[in-house]
Amino acid sequence: MRFYIFVALTTLTFFLALVLLGLGLHYPQARLFRTTRALAAPAASALTTLTATPQPQIQPSPHPTDAPLPTTTPTATSTALPTATAIPTSTPAPSVLAAKSVAFTPGDRAVRANIRLALNMYQGALTNVVLAPGEVFSFNAALGARPQRLPWKYVIIKPTPTDNATPEPATRPQSIQGGGLCDLASRYVMAARPLLPAKAFRFVNHLRSNGVRLAGVPARDSVAIWAVGGGPGEQDLKITNTTGGWLQFVVERTGEKITVSALLWDQPPP
Fold first, then answer.
1. Between 99 and 84, whose confidence is greater?
2. 56: helix, strand or coil
C-alpha cells in the first residue's frame, strides 16, 4: 500500500515538474527563480560601483616650514608703490643767453649826487629791472610820479664845439637841474644795444636835440632825459623787450664807478 502511495506521489511530482519546466521554457520572463549566476551579476556590479567611488580623505596639514610666507599688501602710503611720481623732476636753472656791461665814473660832484638820488628812488627801482617778453621799461617811471619835485642838483652843461662852426649864443653853457640823468639813461641803451633791435629803443637824441655830446656815449645812444612826471615836454627813455627771453638791467656802484649791465635770460632770472 505504501509502495503505491510513494509511486503515486513520485509520478505527481514528476508531472508537476514537467508542467513547470514547460511554462519556464514558453514564458522566460515569468520565471519564479533565477540561477545563482544571473542573480550574482547585479550584486557584483553594485559592489564594483561602491568600491570605485572615491572616499573623502583627510589631508594632513602642511608642515609649518612649508607654509608660504605672508606677503605685505601695499597701502596707499606705502613706498612700494610705483615711485615714478615720487621722484621730483629737476627744473633746469636759468641761463644767460647774452650779456653786455658798460661802466663810467662821473667827474662832476653834482652829477654824482643826481645819479645817486636816481638810483635810490623807489628802493632802488633802477638798479634791478626785469622785463618779461613784450614788457616796456620807462626810465622816468622808476623816478616816481613827481620827479620834478626831487632835490636835483644843478649842473653846468657846455655845448659840444664842432670843427666848422662855433657854438651859437643860444647853445652857450647852461645850468640844468638834474644833470647826469642823461648820462645814466644812455648807459642802459649802450648795454642793451647788442641784445635788442633798433626799434626796441624810444628816446630823444641828446646830441641832435640840444647840440651837447655826452662824454663816453656814442652819438646814436645819447639820451635826453627831462623828467616832469609825465607832463608836457617830458623826455623819457623807453625800452621794449622784443625778444622771447627775459631782459634784466642791473646797476652796481663801486665807489664813484657806475656799472650798468644788460642780461638776456632764457627764463625768469633767479
1. 99
2. coil
Structural domain contains residue 80: no
Could you give the dihedral angle defined by the CA atoms of residues 15, 18, 24 and 27, in that order, rounded to the nearest 10 degrees?
Answer: -80
| Grid cell listed for 175 | 645850468
**For residue 216, which of 265, 180, 172, 177 has the smallest C-alpha distance?**
180
Per residue in 236-246, pLDDT (tens digit) is 999 999 999 99
Domain of residue 240: give its range. Answer: 96-265
Q: Show the DSSP H helices in 57-108 as ranges.
A: none
Strand, coil or helix: what is 237?
Answer: coil
- What is the tally of helices (H) and strands (E) in the chain? 5, 11
In a domain, 164, yes or no: yes
C-alpha span between 182 and 157 (Å, rounded): 11
| Burial zone of 178 (CB within 10 Å; 0-12 exposed, 13-18 middle, 19+ buried) | buried
- The domain total for the chain is 1
- Give the residue ranges of DSSP H helices in 66-148: 109-120
User: What is the rounded distance in angstroms from the CA atom of residue 184 to the CA atom of residue 223?
Assistant: 9
Q: Coil, helix or strand for 247?
A: strand
The cell numbers describing 78, all together, are 606705502
Please report which confidence band the pLDDT of residue 25 belongs to, taking 50, 70 and 90 as the band edges: low
- Cα(211)–Cα(161) distance, rounded to whole angstroms? 9
- Asked whether residue 39 is domain-assigned, the answer is no
Q: 226 and 69 in contact (C-beta within 8 Å)?
A: no
In this prediction, residue 227 carries a pLDDT of 82
Domain assignment present for 71: no
